[in-house]
Design a protein that fits this description.
alpha+beta, 2 helices, three-stranded antiparallel sheet, 6 strands, 46% strand, 125 residues, Immunoglobulin-like
């Protein structure tokens, strides 16, 4: 008669976690690939080219917009900041439908002397 200590002392197999781990890896890996591909090519891209302080209470920002749908109207929120990085001016700039690539130069009025300008976000109207 064969004596099996695992049966006698109730020791279970430790390989029960392999199937759920493989299923989780396949589902999670598929979602990760989908998310990376979906978010790597947004419908609207924006980039600051330059900014220039044009007056004591105004800064001018030059930026570009790339959009997949050239018939789309885009609204970009632009901000001016002071030396302490406080927002001292903010405007919404509307870019009409036209070409897929657009370059804009916009003046942002400010409450005090601006140091830098930035694009907060661009969205479709």
């Amino acid at each position: 008669m064969d004596l099996d200590f695992n049966d006698r002392y109730g020791v279970r197999s430790t390989k029960g976690w392999i199937t759920p781990a493989i299923a989780f890896a396949v589902i999670g890996g598929g979602w990760l690939i989908w998310a990376a591909l979906h978010h790597s090519d947004p419908a609207i891209r924006s980039e600051v080219i330059s900014f220039n302080v044009t007056a004591e209470r105004e800064i001018s920002i030059r930026y570009r917009i790339d959009r997949t749908d050239s018939n789309q109207i885009v609204i970009c929120t632009l901000t001016a900041r002071d030396l302490d990085k406080n927002v001292i001016g903010q405007i919404d700039d509307t870019i009409p439908a036209g070409t897929a690539y657009s370059e804009q130069t916009t003046a942002i009025p400010a409450r005090s002397t601006p140091v830098t300008a930035a694009i907060v976000r661009c969205r479709a109207k």
